[in-house]
């Protein structure tokens, strides 16, 4: 399942239902999909994508800002520019959010009790990996987090590459009874 990630400051707005949309520079979700919602390093629920719409930033209005949890369009546009810089086109993603009773650590969901650092170390030592995979795992070990690794790879949206590689390695290590 895909993921939507939010800064921790949006958690209360998500949980209480005030935040019903998000604006992104890139879009990788489609209408009708269900995604996990991350906030503050934990998976706090699921969301169903209701609508995805490409918009010019100058078409953002107060109604959209309110769905985002902001008071007005000026506040929202300021936040967008703080995050993405001087861009003109964005994707408006509307969703229905369903919080989990208890947040889940992503590692628990995908890797059981295994530590991601140990997965990376064991993979580099025991698996046949290509140079790009080795580079990503070594970068992960150097950075110590998915987010920091993704940023060094080009941006937070690169987390999927890191996650997918760690999941692949976890599966291969399990098949070889190395974890």
**Average of per-residue pLDDT values:** 91
The CATH topology name of the largest domain reads Archaeosine Trna-guanine Transglycosylase, Chain: A, domain 4
| Euclidean distance between termini CA atoms | 24 Å
Q: What is the name of the CATH architecture of the largest domain?
A: Roll
How is this structure best described in words?
Helix content is 44%, strand content 26%. A hairpin with a 2-residue loop joins strand 3 (34-39) and strand 4 (42-56). With 179 residues, the chain is α+β, with helices and mostly antiparallel strands. It is built from 8 helices and 5 strands; from the N terminus they run E-H-E-E-E-H-H-E-H-H-H-H-H. A 5-stranded mixed β-sheet has the order 1-3-4-5-2. The model has no long low-confidence stretch (mean pLDDT 91). The protein has helices at residues 11-15, 62-67, 73-84, 106-111, 116-126, 131-143, 146-153, 159-175, and strands at residues 2-6, 21-24, 34-39, 42-56, 89-104. The chain has 2 domains: 2-104, Hypothetical protein (Archaeosine Trna-guanine Transglycosylase, Chain: A, domain 4), CATH 2.30.130.30; 107-175. The two termini are 24 Å apart.
Question: Which short descriptors sum up this protein?
Answer:
single chain, 179 residues, alpha+beta, Archaeosine Trna-guanine Transglycosylase, Chain: A, domain 4, five-stranded mixed β-sheet, elongated
């Amino acid at each position: 399942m895909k993921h939507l990630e939010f800064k921790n400051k949006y958690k209360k707005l998500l949980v209480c239902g005030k935040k019903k949309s998000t604006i992104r520079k890139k879009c990788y979700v489609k209408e009708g999909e269900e995604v996990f919602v991350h906030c503050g390093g934990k998976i706090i629920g699921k969301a169903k994508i209701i609508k995805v719409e490409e918009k010019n930033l100058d078409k953002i209005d107060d109604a959209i800002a309110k769905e985002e949890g902001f008071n007005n369009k000026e506040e929202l546009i300021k936040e967008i520019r703080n995050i993405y810089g001087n861009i003109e086109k964005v994707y408006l993603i509307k969703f229905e959010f369903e919080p989990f009773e208890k947040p889940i650590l992503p590692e628990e969901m995908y890797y059981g009790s295994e530590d991601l650092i140990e997965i990376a170390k064991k993979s580099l030592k025991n698996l046949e990996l290509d140079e790009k995979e080795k580079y990503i795992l070594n970068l992960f070990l150097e950075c110590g987090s998915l987010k920091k690794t993704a940023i060094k790879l080009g941006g937070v949206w690169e987390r999927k590459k890191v996650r997918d590689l760690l999941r692949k390695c976890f599966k291969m290590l399990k098949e070889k009874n190395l974890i």
